[in-house]
Amino acid sequence: MAEQLHPEDIYQTLEYEIVTLKIKPGETISENQLCKRFGISRTPVRAACSGWNRTALCRSFPASTIVTPIDLDIVDQIVYQRTAVESTVLRDFIQVCSPKEYIEIKHKYDLLEEMAQTMTDPDNVDINAFLTLDLEMHAIWFCSMNKWYIWQNLTKPQPDYSRFTRLDVVRANNVPDVLSEHREILRVIREKDLDAIEPLIRRHLYGGLRRMGTQLYAEKYKSYFTGI
User: Where are the beta strands (DSSP E) in the chain?
Assistant: First the structure.
């Protein structure tokens, strides 16, 4: 059964584990480990690892692969871009938001709050479910303003930003902050407080960098980052 695994399946499994930090920045993945894990020969393992050439997640060496560190400069630029674009879209949306759309956004927030109640153990957090729900809330105003293409481009998987946001959720315990900021977003939409939009979105999206703070320089994360 294991021999029927396609190299692309192996590649996608490893990519998912790297992006979700199950495999950490700086870790080495050897061919021997992969052969043993998947119960396959070196040929499909090497074919799977050749996929790293199309991403920045890893650097390949003979018989092994090293997971690249998170580039904080790229993270900062992505946050800068999202702040500029999302502030504009949300400003436009607030001025035309219908009661039905507000209720839909409030429902997403309520689900986030319910999920947060189960996130007391950082090692057993369903990071992807939480972040997916978070993004679904933001997506409502992009969809309403017919800016879905922009939203898809803003949120497409990106190795550095995807890994950083997950590290923030787990290690910086950002859930209370995220919920507080989403409550404020609800208030801003409800009260049509246009002046509060840009500062709020900036604080919300830059929250990860703020919360991680000096942890970025801690010994335990030494191999996680570049650009500091």
Answer: 28-30, 58-61, 64-67, 70-71, 225-226
